[in-house]
Amino acid sequence: MYLRNTERYLNFNPIGRNKTLLVLFTAIMGLASLIEHFLHIPPSINVRTKILSRELLTRSETHAEFVTFAFTAGAGGRWDSESCKRALRLTYSSLVRSQSKFPRLHVYTDDLTVVPKSTVSGIKTNIVVYQSRPDLLPVNQYTGTNPWLSLSRAKLDVVEHLMALTGGNIIWIDLDTLVFVDLSLTNTHSWVIGYQHGNCFNCSAEHISQGGPFDRPIEPKFDIFGDLWALNLSGIAAFRRYEAKHVLSGLPLPSYDLQGYFSLMLADSALPAILLHDVLDYNFGFVCSGFDHPTPQNMRLKVVKGTLSCPVEASLEKELSERVGSISFTSPTFVGMVLKEPIGNFTWVENEHARAYLQSWFTILADKTNSYSLWGLLG
Question: CB within 8 A of 196, min separation 6: which ones?
Answer without folding.
Answer: 204, 223, 224, 225, 259, 285, 286, 291
